[in-house]
Amino acid sequence: MPYQSWPYLWMVGPVLVGLTGLIVLTAGIDALARRRVFSAMGGIFGGGAVLALAVAILLLGLDVQTYHRLSFERSIATIDLRQTGDKAFDATVAEATAEQAPRTFALTGDEWRIEARVLKWKPWANVLGLDARYRLERLAGEFTDQGEEQTGPRSIHDLRSPNPTGTAAADQLWRLSSRLNETHLIDTLYGSATVMPMADGARYELSMTQTGLLARPVNEAATKAVGRWH
Asked: What SS3 state is found at 71?
């Protein structure tokens, strides 16, 4: 069973075990009031042991939950590259959201760079189930040589949704986020970016972690490009 299908079992299990221990402990106390010493001792010690077990399970579950939530990441897009000329590529961005169709952008340079606006929650809010929110902002091509970067052709594209309805909904979310930024829920609002080398046929997976963007090569062409990257 995948972890995501039982995210709160770490709380339910200890509660059930703890209730059992409490029932046994209460029975022991009741037996003591009736001067049934042997039954009372068994109930008190047995109930106490079960309660201690519940606490141990709770602490272990909390530790696992904290690790899972703080290290959680989700795939948000794939980027496929096709070379069209000398340091010229078509980059197809396929976002994981169903409402956004894949889009292709012309890039020039040696690397691609993608940027996003990120809402990072406090760690305790992550543990309770809130995931970092993001909005892809822009995609650009870059040159590894600083001279080329300063004088070479620029290729920068807006990734914000061209759908008016989607844009309005996203803008509403970020306006709300700005208000929440003054509360103890939000850690920070900031920009996050990741850069990877471009190569013909390369494919990358873009993921969102609880702290920002992460990109990984997912085929041989991309892996070789990263291996040659310096």
From this structure: coil
